[in-house]
């Protein structure tokens, strides 16, 4: 093994943890993370609501083919991608409180309009507008949380935040099913009632966020003076270390940074798998009725859809605890990617609904185990506006997969008549992520970009 600092700098907790440190991190976990997770829960639910509406009346009412449904699912990411970096730079300039609240209210209003969509063209337009409205929320939330805790706690904080995403399906799928079952409410079809029910909370919580969120630790009234002093000192030390070891913090330095582009490609594979599952799992479950000669009600479909994500939530929690204990290792990200690559196509060869869903649970667990650890990487070697831009750029180009997953899956399904080719494609992209993670971890990090963070080298 060649000496020198590797691509990933891993961090561990300090040997001695003061009471001030414990109380500060505990308060952040209690006061800030749950609210941000609630925002993320609503965000992912509104984004993927189309996956519940599709097989429960929307495709039939609007006359959609699978490829059109895939295009409608994926077109969201066009506007999202175009405005992602500008939105995160605006967040850095104007503050998270104002910008995240604005984003949330905007997407809530657009999501509400799905209640009255009446054509394929209208569906495409609203999905495009929804992407524009949501642009910047996720990378903004990641960047915002990274500003509140020292590097050694970011895996823990981001894992707690990320739990909201699989729980969106665990609780969101039955919730969507329950709303869909209220067919006729206000004279609306069930899937329209569902859009109405999941949109209003975004507007309400967005307004609350304007008053609840705080831009920086020094303004937090729920921290004592001693806690503010400790946290500010820790964050300033980390910032100074990164500033002294990074010669250029401009946007151009981010765009020309090979490590950032490598992370973009790795994230692409994870997002492709994530959204292929999110958009088409309800449709695949709906196909069990013909494939296995079974019958499921709307609520049963919702519960079955949520089951793999419940398993994924538990796996992600314990996997992230191991990351916090050991420090982030290459295998914490590469191994789940490889497991997901193998398991997703295998699910199609299972002979019972139970074995199919068990295998899909492995895939979902693999994706969610890796993501919180992945998002600790950009802020290890970038800071300030450059870190905000890098997180946005990675999320932007990674989310090209969000469009690709929906559209390519639909095209391949219509061309072949089944989901084998689409799921093999998912497996190929996730395998590429695993390989790239190993390759990048072998690259020596230039001394000028290496932050002075305590920790062990990646193995």
TrEMBL record:
One Pfam family from the record: MFS_1
Transmembrane segments: 28-45, 65-83, 99-118, 124-148, 160-181, 193-213, 260-282, 302-319, 331-348, 354-375, 387-408, 420-440
Membrane topology term: Multi-pass membrane protein
Cell compartment(s), UniProt: Membrane
Domain Major facilitator superfamily (MFS) profile: 32-445
PROSITE patterns: MFS (PS50850)
GO cellular component terms, A-Z: membrane
GO molecular function annotation: transmembrane transporter activity
Name the record gives this protein: MFS transporter
PANTHER family recorded: PERMEASE-RELATED, TRANSPORTER, PUTATIVE (AFU_ORTHOLOGUE AFUA_6G08340)-RELATED
InterPro entries: MFS (IPR011701), MFS_dom (IPR020846), MFS_trans_sf (IPR036259)
Keywords: Cell membrane, Membrane, Transmembrane, Transmembrane helix, Transport
């Amino acid at each position: 093994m060649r000496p020198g600092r590797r691509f990933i700098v891993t961090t561990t907790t300090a040997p001695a943890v003061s009471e001030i440190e414990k109380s500060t991190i505990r308060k952040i976990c209690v006061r800030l993370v749950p609210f941000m997770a609630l925002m993320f829960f609503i965000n992912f639910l509104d984004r993927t609501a189309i996956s519940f509406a599709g097989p429960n009346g929307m495709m039939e009412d609007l006359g959609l083919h699978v490829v059109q449904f895939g295009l409608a699912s994926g077109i969201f990411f066009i506007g999202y991608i175009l405005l992602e970096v500008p939105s995160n730079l605006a967040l850095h300039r104007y503050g998270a409180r104002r910008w995240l609240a604005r984003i949330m209210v905007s997407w809530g209003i657009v999501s509400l309009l799905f209640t009255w969509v009446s054509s394929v063209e209208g569906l495409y337009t609203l999905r495009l507008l929804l992407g524009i409205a949501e642009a910047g929320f996720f990378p903004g939330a990641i960047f915002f949380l990274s500003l509140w805790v020292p590097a050694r706690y970011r895996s823990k904080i981001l894992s707690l935040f990320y739990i909201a995403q699989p729980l969106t399906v665990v609780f969101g799928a039955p919730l969507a099913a329950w709303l869909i079952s209220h067919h006729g409410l206000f004279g609306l079809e069930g899937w329209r009632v569902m859009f109405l029910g999941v949109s209003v909370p975004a507007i309400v919580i967005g307004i609350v966020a304007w008053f609840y969120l705080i831009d920086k630790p020094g303004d937090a009234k729920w921290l004592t003076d001693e806690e503010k002093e400790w946290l500010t000192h820790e964050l300033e030390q980390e910032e100074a270390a990164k500033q002294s070891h990074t010669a250029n913090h401009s946007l151009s330095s981010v765009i020309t940074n090979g490590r950032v582009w490598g992370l973009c490609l790795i994230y692409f594979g994870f997002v492709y798998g994530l959204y292929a599952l999110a958009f088409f799992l309800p449709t695949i479950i709906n196909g069990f009725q013909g494939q296995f000669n079974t019958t499921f009600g709307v609520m049963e479909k919702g519960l079955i859809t949520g089951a793999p994500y419940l398993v994924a939530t538990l796996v992600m929690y314990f996997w992230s605890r191991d990351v916090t204990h050991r420090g982030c290792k290459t295998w914490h990200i590469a191994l789940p990617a490889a497991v997901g690559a193998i398991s997703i196509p295998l699910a199609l060869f299972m002979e019972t609904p139970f074995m199919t869903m068990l295998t899909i649970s492995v895939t979902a667990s693999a994706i969610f185990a890796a993501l919180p650890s992945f998002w600790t990487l950009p802020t290890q070697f970038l800071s300030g506006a450059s870190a905000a831009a890098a997180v946005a750029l990675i999320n932007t180009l990674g989310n090209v997969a969000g469009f690709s997953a929906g559209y390519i899956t639909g095209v391949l399904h219509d061309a072949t008549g089944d989901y084998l080719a689409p799921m093999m494609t998912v497996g190929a992209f996730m395998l590429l992520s695993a390989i790239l993670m190993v390759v990048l971890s072998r690259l020596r990090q230039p001394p000028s970009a290496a932050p002075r963070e305590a920790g062990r080298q990646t193995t």
